[in-house]
UniProtKB/TrEMBL annotation:
The keyword Protein transport does not apply. This is OmpA-like domain-containing protein. It comes from Yoonia sediminilitoris. Keywords: Membrane. InterPro entries: OmpA-like, OmpA-like_sf. GO terms for cellular component: membrane. Residues 1-40 form the OmpA-like domain.
Length: 40
């Protein structure tokens, strides 16, 4: 059985979900995304 591997990529200001022109857009960009990939 293979050992699980943790992978973390942080994009910060280089990859916002939406523009940062308003308070609502700032709120949308304050997020945490967790992607889980099967080890196969």
């Amino acid at each position: 059985m293979e050992k699980e591997k943790d992978l973390l990529d942080a994009f910060g200001e280089i990859a916002p979900s939406v523009c940062n022109n308003s308070q609502d857009e700032h709120r949308i960009n304050r997020r945490v995304e967790v992607w889980i990939q099967n080890g196969t």
